[in-house]
Amino acid sequence: MVPVDFAAERAMGKGGCGIFAYVNHGVGRSQRFIVDALVTGLRRLEYRGYDSAGLSLDRVPSLKAASTGSNGHGAGHGGAGQGGSAPLVFRATGKVDALVACVESTGPTSGLAWEVELDFHAGIAHTRWATHGPPLPKNAHPHVSDSGHAFVVVHNGIITNHAPLREMLQRHGFVFESDTDTEVIPKLAKYLYDSFPPTPDNSPRLSFLQLVQLVVRELDGAYALIFKSSHYPGELVAAKRGSPLLLAIRDPAAADAATAAAAAAAGEHLQQRSNSSGGSGGAATGAADGVLATADSHDRPAMTQRPRPGKRRRADQIEFFLASDASAVIEHTKKVVVLEDDDCVHLAGGSYAVYRLQRGGPPAADGAPAPASAFLSGDGADAHGGVLLNPPATVHRVIQTLELEVEQIMRGKWDHFMAKEIHEQPDSLRQTMRGRVISPGPACPAGRIQLGGISGFVGAIRRSRRIMFIACGSSFHGCLAVRPLVEELTELPVQLELASDFLDRRCPVFRGDTCVFVSQSGETADTLRALEYAKSAGALCVGVVNAVGSAIARATDCGIHINAGAEIGVASTKAYTSQIVSLVMMALLLSEDSASKATRRAEIIAALQTLPDAVADVLRLDAQIRVLATSLVKEQSMLVFGRGWNYATALEAALKVKEVALMHSEGILAGEMKHGPLALVDASLPLLCVATSDGHLAKMESVCEQLRARGGRIILMVDDARGRLAQAAGSTPDGASRVLVVPRTVDCLQSVVNAVPLQLLAYHLTVLRGHNVDRACPRPSVLPPCLHALLRFYLTRMTMPHAEPRNLAKSVTVE
Ligand code: AGP
């Protein structure tokens, strides 16, 4: 198995939404097992942030439902009037635990029978991050078509044309219960379904796939969608455009790897279904292969790929999972199919097929989708009375093997993912450099850099008229940290762009430009849109991403995988430091032909090799930083000053403190101190000054002096050489009230070392202030549950802007 880092096909639609489905075919599973599987899937997606959750599964057919309807607490409701066939839907605000409580309390009266085994079943689940409408049960997913739950849908993304669709559906008698954009989708499915009366034997005229094809072509925006329907029991259809989605496959029969490998070689199981369009041929296949080639063109292949089996046969026993994120499926299986935009998956009868959807159809005068007959071929009906749509082409998507280990998505001994990921940094940095930083040897006395993903493009990048780095948030700070080195080593103009501003300005981009897109998730909407924009202008587009197989990794011409490993915490920590190292390696590679830079390059390559140890050393400050955090816990605000190589450090430290500790903090370029920020300085405001040794130290010391003259309460970060000197003199450097002494490395890598204690500071501040680190929630987690519930009750009703978690989602896939 080729090592892969599938850190995060985990961006989401609306902020932190998570999507999950579980299908068992020929494998008897109790309803308790099914609910557990769905709930566990949601728990694995919790780190993304969310404010409500829901799930849908079938009632036990033999039980007559009490048909509870919504009980006002988001409890299960079971499709009144549909007897035993309507899917049950449970929705709750708050955490997954609240959903579990809701299912436990209302399930048995709604048609759930915990111990009854179902051989075939399809369940769907969702965590929602409120965008359209506040976090209330009625706005949580799944959304339904009608009181009978004929269609039930979970959705990540945003439907930009939901308003006209809603109006049209209301004109046709549909009554909406939620404020969401999503609700139009199941209702549109029912509207279209009802426009085709069933066959005389009461079978649907449209296949589930055909129906979803009709629905999806009416939707504008971004989506990962899963449809479930009482008309198509045991089936699911999923569609993707702009929001990540993967299909995972578990063959219970392939209990051990040897058996699985042998069976795979013989093409014996996990077959992909084909339809009359001829399976893997055609442009769609080409596109798929191209996509994978793009991923592979980065210097590490995304996943091992198993050749498509030649024979096609249904598996008698099989389980499928659909998820927005690999972390939700990894404990079940490593076999996944990563879906592309406009892919649609149909799961039915123990097999799956992937199709390419075409979008857009002529609207009718009242804005309703064109009569479905417009999409029909021939006379609109086949010999059996079924409707013929022009069938979408199937497309071959290889089954790939994740190299994500379950441990990577578990906290292990750590209380929080953020702590785990901060402390993993010596290893993540080694991983980023593995096989890429070549030690000095007889053939190459100064050492060299090897980056397979961009090696074929070095000449083109060097010939660019300028290099533009485009990113958001911490990824932008990573670019800022390395800009001076790229300028120094390449002597090219280097421009930094926040992706949103780049787009707002319609920044001029030319064919001779190289645009470097830096992203942990590889799915950030602004960065992705900026990439599309730069591509359309003809620029050479380079990706520097952590998430292998992500949209940015796929869409760029070439790139570097950051290889930091799965980053689950909402705050970027190890990905940030590995981004800096990746960009430093890129700068070194771009200058490898420059004799005048040889000494400098050798110095940096040597420092790269000792960098993980320096980071391990700085992590030993953890206890000291906790003490510092204790002294700051009640503060309202903090300023962080840095300059030169550490301007980025100041911005990144302030962002971390804001993002997780929910404390105001500003990162300030020290050279700007006199141009305004000095007015804020008094004896009460903590000022963190990053003053490690580099060519700007004298200027930084002067800034500290001026801050001190104003009575500023300085917390100083210095390197060990300066720390020792001050100690010998029996004073603290620059009269600081507190000093953090960090190991020294070469100037252009010092920002990596310096970032780590500031990450720890943000972490400890967050814990001490009582916030949830990985899903930073403004409410103190120390409140007893009853008070917490009471507080939530009032906050929800008062619809205060701060009533819900305010942290950024892990990835932001809506502009
Ligand atoms: C950092 O802690 C944040 N989570 C955020 O600023 C993040 O870096 C930004 O949203 C960009 O994300 P990306 O790297 O996944 O593109």
Task: Break the fold down into its secondary structure elements and pairings.
Blueprint: E1 18-30, H1 31-44, E2 52-57, E3 88-93, H2 96-110, E4 117-128, E5 143-144, E6 151-159, H3 162-171, H4 184-194, H5 208-216, E7 221-229, E8 236-241, E9 246-250, H6 257-265, H7 282-297, E10 304-306, E11 318-323, E12 335-338, E13 343-348, E14 351-356, E15 399-401, H8 417-423, H9 425-433, E16 437-438, E17 448-449, H10 458-462, E18 466-471, H11 473-490, E19 494-498, H12 499-504, E20 513-519, H13 525-536, E21 540-545, H14 551-555, E22 558-561, H15 574-590, H16 598-619, H17 622-632, E23 637-642, H18 647-661, E24 664-669, E25 686-690, H19 697-709, E26 713-719, H20 720-728, E27 738-742, H21 747-768, H22 785-798
Parallel strand pairs: 18-19, 18-20, 20-21, 21-22, 23-24, 23-25, 25-26, 26-27
Antiparallel strand pairs: 1-4, 1-11, 2-3, 2-4, 5-6, 6-7, 7-8, 8-13, 9-11, 9-12, 10-15, 12-15, 13-14, 16-17
Helix pairs in contact: 3-4, 4-5, 9-15, 9-16, 11-15, 11-18, 15-21, 16-21, 17-21, 18-21
Bound molecules: 2-deoxy-2-amino glucitol-6-phosphate (AGP).
